[in-house]
Amino acid sequence: MPELTHLIPRRPDRRTYNHGVKRVIPELGFGVEMDRILKFAQKQGIEYKTIGMARRSPEYLKALVFLFPEEEIARAWVAEFGGEYVGIVPPGRSYKGA
What we know:
There is one protein chain. This protein has two helices and four strands. It is α+β, with helices and mostly antiparallel strands. It has a single domain (18-89), classed as Alpha-Beta Plaits, CATH 3.30.70. The protein has a four-stranded antiparallel sheet with strand order 2-3-1-4, with helices on one face. It is globular and about 30 Å long.
């Protein structure tokens, strides 16, 4: 995995608006690539939100939205890992911008 650690602060503030990158999960589940990305994000302390999750059932999980404090960091993430930059994501428990 590339070193984006110099761009990513340890804990973004959940009460503020953040820049989001949406990554759709394939029909057949996470897959190896998505699992690696998620583990990297968790290791770096990157916050993320879920879309379409119903009572923690993996079959209902449609996408993840990774949250970054600055647009530059979010766009660097897209360039490295793929996904779609979705702009500003409001604070809260879920993200409805799917």
